[in-house]
Design a protein that fits this description.
By secondary structure, the protein is mostly beta strands. A 7-stranded antiparallel beta sheet has the order 2-5-12-7-8-10-11, with no helix packed on it. Strands 1, 3, 4, 6, 9 and 13 form a 6-stranded antiparallel beta sheet that branches.
Length: about 180
Amino acid sequence: MKTSVIAAILFIGMQMNAQEVYDFSSESKAGDWFVVDDGVMGGRSQGNVGLSDEGHGIFQGTVSLENNGGFSSIRARMEGLGTKGYSAFIIRLKGDGKNYQFRVRSQLNERHSYQYEFPTTGDWQEVTVPFDKMIPTFRGMRLDMPNYPGEVLRECSFLISNKKNESFRLEIDRIWLEASQE
């Protein structure tokens, strides 16, 4: 009995140090997210986004290297969510054993984004994305500027680009911010 009370207190304490970014649920609208594939450059990859019966986001499709292609992504825009005082994004997801990127932008008019690549295991997992490990990139090239400053979030996205023809499926439960421990 004591163990479950302590666990509940710890869980509540962790929730107080967290802020929701996006929670997929049966009430979510898949239209909050939009697809950007390599078709913007003439490629042939095709991704789509929807909701599972359980209310999880599903990002799936095929990546094609044909016609200089090679990526698929989904994006969601925010109203300028403050990220100051936080140090990492936490994402609960279930992948297919492939690598994905989580990307964010501080301003919609910025051409660059900050990216973090992570592997998936095929099981449900929580991926921690530390702000100080999110590197600035533009069209796949690393930029000579500081990593994600962690002040404001205007867009987040998931991208697959493993330099091979492949099908993919990423199931996303929720994304939240973890408070700095300073």
